[in-house]
Amino acid sequence: MKHSFIETTPESHFPIQNLPYGIFQKKGQSPRAGTAIGDYVLDLSVIDEVGLLSGTGAEEKKVFSSSSLNQFMSLGRPVWTAVRNKLQYLLDSKTPDLRDNEELRLKAFHPLTDVEMLLPADIGDYTDFYASREHATNVGTIFRGKDNALMSNWTHLPIGYHGRASSIVPSGTHVRRPSGQRKPTGADYPVFGPSIQLDFELEMGWFIGTGNPLGEPIPVNQAENHVFGLVLVNDWSARDIQAWEYQPLGPFLSKSFATSISPWVVPLEALEPFRTAGPQQDPEPFPYLQQTKDGAFNINLEVHLAPENTEQATRITNTNFSYMYWSIAQQVAHHTITGCNIRPGDMHGSGTISGPSREERGSLLELSWRGTEPLQLNDGGERSWIEDGDKLTISGWCQGDGYRIGFGQVSGQVLPALSEAQILGNQKMKI
């Protein structure tokens, strides 16, 4: 097994086998690209400037001095592979280039605690899917009953909708409770006010690297070549706003107020040892969705909830990405089957990830069964929905033999909704 001269523990999310990419900023410096190794970020622009990335195909473009990964993403898998191989060589415990150059090391490595992590890409488009059978079945059962849980189209195609890219935020960003229209049970008319059924959605997301020309679909068995890497996603949801607005066109304001993502993009190549078979698909998909190799990945996922003014967090979800019915490749192939073009930096969300047992459900809507079965917290409290001040943290990792391929975490704390006076005041200011 490879080891880096940068010390890592078996529990570290960022060993030499991982090397995720992100955009970081150190005080007094401009944003630039880095890779995480142990408790440090390696400034890729520094080692690129001194020629250590020569021969990869990325050095001519100076892509690592950019404030986003978009240009690097656009270079394609051969360049991504070359850069990854070079980084693993440079960080290897047996390679002296960085290890023995103290002056260069001081310029190139920064403790993760000393930098601010930013969004990894300029996200042009965001598509959110609905690809977990367990989640779709739970939600359908809650709203339509067990006999009509899955809609007739669900097992034939990956359901998705166009999300809002402008409100995707990096981990640590506070999330304001949204206000909107909701229709109380038994009422004849809707009311306006803060959402009282605020929820999280445990998802994975992936960034598109190379895109496709308009009018040219991406074949399912080539789809992964267009995927740069994966992140953790919390697609915050206002369930009461959603219930009133979603007919007939689907989610809108109930999901557009915030989507939180982890800052480190884990390359698909780092996940290759953890590839596994997904659920059996019945009926057999159409030929354009038939993947010839295993399309799922064994990624452990956890969600912790910590009430305000306490460090006592409760693990409320423990599930796995491999439960997803529709694979990444199938979702990309379906997205483009009409000829829709996807572009570098676009993000796709998997949709809520749930497993077969209660503790594997990926949202409070399911965990509390729409508020009828509140969750018990470690501090003695309970939750049916997220309350003001609550902090939600999602973490994820693949477990190898003596190492982990981790995603770090994505967290967000909920702030109270704006008052009606503040909302009306904001409207007047804009006028």
Automatic annotation (TrEMBL):
Segments forming domain Fumarylacetoacetase N-terminal: 17-120
The enzyme's E.C. designation: 3.7.1.2
Pfam family membership, one: FAA_hydrolase_N
Record keywords, A-Z: Calcium, Hydrolase, Magnesium, Metal-binding, Phenylalanine catabolism, Tyrosine catabolism
All copies of domain Fumarylacetoacetase-like C-terminal, residue ranges: 126-413
MF terms in GO: fumarylacetoacetase activity; metal ion binding
Similarity remark: Belongs to the FAH family.
Protein name stated in the entry: fumarylacetoacetase
Organism of derivation: Peribacillus simplex
